[in-house]
Design goal:
alpha/beta, BirA Bifunctional Protein, domain 2, Rossmann fold, 12 helices, about 45% helix, about 15% strand
Length: about 300
C-alpha cells in the first residue's frame, strides 16, 4: 500500500501539560478534543475556539497549547529531543513523557524504520476512554485519505463491563479507506464472491419460502445468499454476475406450483428447470465439474 507513518502521542502528556497551564480538569477533555482537529480544521480555527467564549483561555495559554500540539518529529533522536524540550511540569506530565519515550524506544528496538513512526502532539483521539499512548496511521503519498488505522491504550474501559481491572491497547482499521487505496494502487483483483448460489426474490410475501430454500442449500454444503429486498429480476441477475456468483435460483409462482426451481448458470448463460428434490444434487454435480476442470487442465 506504499509508504506509511504511525504518528504517536500520549494522553497523560497532553493532560499534564494542560494542567500545568492552569486548564481546569473539567475542561481538559474538551480542549483535548479541540486540538485533535488541528490537522483537519487548521491552527487558526483551533486557536480562536480555545480563546473564544466556549473555553475562554488566556491568549498566552492558548499560544503555548498551539506550540505544543504543533510539535512533530523527523527521527527518533529528534523525537526524544523535542520531548525533553517541552516545558510542562507535574507528575502526570512526566509520566506521559516517560511512557512516550519508552514506546518510541521499543518501536525502534523492534527494527521499525524511523520513517515509519513519528511524534505528533496534536493526536488526541476524540473518545474519552483513552488514557495513555494514542496513535494514527497515514499513507505518506495520500494524506487526503486521513487516518487508515488508529487506536491507543485504555486502562479503565473494561471497568464498564466487569469488576476486574483489565487495561488494554486497541486498534481500528479503516477498511473503506484501505480498500480505496489498494484499488487505486492496482493491488486488488476483480471482486469475486465465495457465494455459489443466489436465491432471488420475486414476491416479498414469499420470503419465508426463499429463506427455507436457502437453508436447504446451505445444509447441503452450498454457500447461498438470499436477496432480502424486492426488486427487478434483471437487477438481481446483474448483481450475481458482478459478484461472481455462479448460479441464480428463481422460485416464482409457477415453480412453487410445480415444486420445481428455475436455475440460471451465469457462467454458461444457460437456464434450466429442475425438480426441487433434485436441486442440491444437480448443483453439486455442476460445482464439482467446475472445480475439476482446472485440475484436469493442469495435468
Amino acid at each position: 500500500i506504499g509508504p506509511f507513518q504511525i504518528q504517536l502521542n500520549n494522553r497523560k502528556l497532553m493532560r499534564g501539560y494542560f494542567e500545568s497551564l492552569g486548564v481546569a480538569s473539567e475542561q481538559q477533555m474538551p480542549v483535548l478534543r479541540e486540538v485533535d482537529k488541528l490537522d483537519k480544521r487548521g491552527a487558526d480555527y483551533v486557536r480562536e475556539t480555545l480563546t473564544g467564549p466556549q473555553f475562554g483561555l488566556a491568549h498566552e495559554a492558548a499560544a503555548r497549547i498551539m506550540a505544543f500540539v504543533e510539535v512533530r518529529s523527523t527521527s527518533f533522536d529528534d523525537a526524544c529531543a523535542k520531548l525533553d524540550a517541552l516545558d510542562g511540569r507535574g507528575a502526570l506530565f512526566e509520566q506521559g513523557r516517560a511512557e512516550l519515550k519508552d514506546v518510541l524506544g521499543l518501536i525502534r528496538a523492534f527494527g521499525v524504520p524511523e520513517s515509519h513512526f513519528a511524534l505528533n502532539l496534536s493526536i488526541a483521539r476524540g473518545l474519552d476512554y483513552y488514557t495513555g499512548t494514542v496513535y494514527e496511521t497515514h499513507l505518506t503519498e495520500h494524506p487526503q485519505i486521513g487516518s487508515i488505522c488508529s487506536g491507543g491504550r485504555y486502562d479503565n474501559l473494561a471497568g464498564h463491563y466487569t469488576k476486574s481491572h483489565l487495561p488494554g491497547v486497541g486498534i481500528s482499521i479503516g477498511a473503506t479507506r484501505l480498500f480505496w487505496q489498494l484499488r487505486e494502487a492496482g493491488l486488488l483483483g476483480p471482486a469475486t464472491s465465495t457465494v455459489q448460489v443466489l436465491v432471488t426474490q420475486m414476491d416479498e410475501t414469499q420470503l419465508p419460502a426463499y429463506l427455507e430454500l436457502a437453508t436447504q442449500l446451505r445444509n447441503g454444503g452450498i454457500a447461498t445468499e438470499v436477496v432480502m429486498e424486492p426488486g427487478k429480476l434483471a437487477k438481481q441477475f446483474k448483481y450475481a454476475d458482478r459478484a461472481g456468483i455462479r448460479f441464480v435460483v428463481v422460485l416464482g409462482p409457477d415453480e412453487i406450483a410445480k415444486d420445481t426451481v428455475a436455475v440460471k448458470d451465469m457462467r454458461k448463460q444457460d437456464q434450466f428447470e429442475v425438480p426441487r428434490a433434485e436441486l442440491i444434487k444437480t448443483l453439486r454435480v455442476e460445482l464439482e465439474q467446475a472445480a475439476a476442470m482446472p485440475r484436469a487442465g493442469r495435468s
